[in-house]
Design a protein that fits this description.
five-stranded parallel sheet, 11 helices, 363 residues, single chain
């Protein structure tokens, strides 16, 4: 009986098999990359809370280390996004003390420090030397408390977001405000962005989720050209959400249609002129795109990324070696097709390459 009730509570909406558990972990050899740890994705909607998550997720597979490279601030486009976020923080939280949970490499933290904010960062994978960053998880034992908790691109990674937020509240003395930023699942669906569904992302949020998760929301909306959601809320009002009537989530029709479209185009291109298949972007989208193309018989040949920490290393699952832009452009003929993994960077790449190539945004 209990098993039947659980089946009735969760409704599957998407499935993918054997995806790398980390898209942004870089490997030192092709064999290591191809043999990386993999897991399945079974996205379900909880018909009690309305939340969408990967029911097949296993947290025991997740061990972050120094080979995990997800810094996006090497791009001027992403720097502008961070500038926009810092303006929101300044508008609402000027004069407040801040804690950034999951501060990564510390770029945003240091940006806020430069604006005069009193901020502490926590991240066990931090590699820098900023004494304001503690290489630990946030917990009551650390003995820190702030007016505001910043949670940028963390909540999609945790298995039970409501419990996680409740634990943050407890660690912060049961008070405080919060800024959350996560990918937008509505954007993923609207753009048929199958390459934006990863094992590492357990949760997939839409904007209405946060109004059901918090009793008090000060501001919420979309950012990064709609790819992300953000919310500013009173952390002490966190609550278990309940699904809205008639809000069963449906993926749009032909969600995976472009897998065939792009793989057919790439196979035809190689047959006709034997040119190389090239993608720009060796991060999450590029990892999944390259994997799906390989499985469809359209193997990618060249991966370009401006992040020096990725260059010379190998992508999870496909074992593709990441090249610096200068190295790759030297190998390509003028007019070659380059598939750009994130349309937000299209103009930046066009300028960087001096319009020598045919850039194709996969969005």
């Amino acid at each position: 009986m209990l098993g039947d009730k659980m089946k009735q509570r969760y409704r599957e909406i998407y499935r993918a098999t054997q995806l790398p558990v980390f898209q942004n972990r870089m490997f030192h050899t092709e064999d290591e990359a191809r043999n990386c740890v993999k897991g399945n994705v079974a996205l379900v909607q909880d018909l009690e809370t309305g939340l969408i998550f990967n029911q097949a997720f296993n947290p025991e597979l997740m061990h972050y280390d120094a080979d995990y490279q997800n810094e996006q601030a090497v791009s001027t486009v992403f720097q502008q996004h961070l500038h926009n976020v810092s303006n929101v923080i300044q508008k609402h939280f000027q004069g407040c003390s801040l804690i950034e949970v999951g501060c990564g490499k510390g770029h945003f933290l240091e940006q806020l420090q430069g604006m005069g904010f009193d901020i502490i960062g926590l991240d066990p994978t931090y590699e820098g030397s900023n004494t304001s960053v503690i290489k630990k998880y946030f917990s009551p034992e650390i003995g820190l408390k702030a007016d505001v908790i910043l949670l940028r691109h963390v909540l999609e990674h945790v298995q039970d977001p409501i419990t996680f937020l409740s634990n943050l509240l407890a660690a912060n003395g049961r008070s405080g405000k919060i800024y959350i930023e996560v990918p937008c699942f509505d954007w993923i669906c609207d753009h048929r962005a199958w390459f934006d569904i990863f094992y590492e992302h357990v949760n997939y949020f839409v904007l209405s989720d946060f109004y059901r998760m918090f009793g008090v929301v000060y501001e919420a909306g979309h950012t990064f050209n709609g790819q992300y959601l953000y919310v500013l809320a009173d952390l002490s009002t966190i609550r278990m959400p309940t699904i809205e009537v008639s809000k069963r989530f449906e993926l749009p029709g032909k969600f995976l249609e472009t897998v065939d479209k792009y793989s057919t185009s790439l196979r035809a291109q190689k047959t006709e002129d034997k040119t190389m298949s090239v993608i720009w972007g060796g991060a999450s989208k590029g990892v999944i795109f390259a994997l799906f193309m390989e499985r469809a018989g359209a193997k990618i040949d060249v991966v370009i990324d401006i992040n020096a920490a990725k260059q010379g290393k190998y992508l999870a699952a496909t074992g593709l070696k990441v090249m610096a832009p200068e190295e790759a452009m030297h190998k390509l003929s003028p007019g070659s097709d380059i598939f750009v993994m994130n349309g937000n960077y299209l103009n930046e790449i066009q300028e960087f390459t001096d319009s020598r190539f045919n850039l194709i945004s996969i969005e």
